[in-house]
Amino acid sequence: MSHNGRLSLPESEMTWRFSRSSGAGGQHVNTTDTRVELIWSLTDTTALSPAQKELAAQRLSNRLVGGTITVVSSQYRSQHRNREAARVRLEDLVSQAVVPPKPRRATRPSRASKERRLDAKKRRSSIKQGRSGSWE
User: Fold this and answer.
1) Mean pLDDT for each consecutive 10-residue tract of the chain (136 residues)?
2) What's this model's pTM, rounded to 2 decimal places?
């Protein structure tokens, strides 16, 4: 269900909204609805398993509003290119959110790193020690 490493979301689950874009483009900007808003519901999707939905909900919590994600694109002058850009951004966002976390492998600090830490502590200690005392 993915192409070139990116998740493919069904078109039927996407809601599109179009409006006038701001910025450069001259008179063209004032007459055509090139700004694209793509709205996709994470809670209602069938493209993800329940475990993937849970993981995506955690990772995208700052972007979710009522279980939906909105992606806006107005970088191109054509609505078609903005639609494609918004779709790609949404698919990338969701693809990265559903990658399972890599388990942490426990390691011990090396002898050199322990020595560096202790040396730094000694140096810091002597600096602070030098601050106290009487001024002569």
Assistant:
1) 64 81 72 84 82 85 84 86 90 86 92 97 94 75
2) 0.65
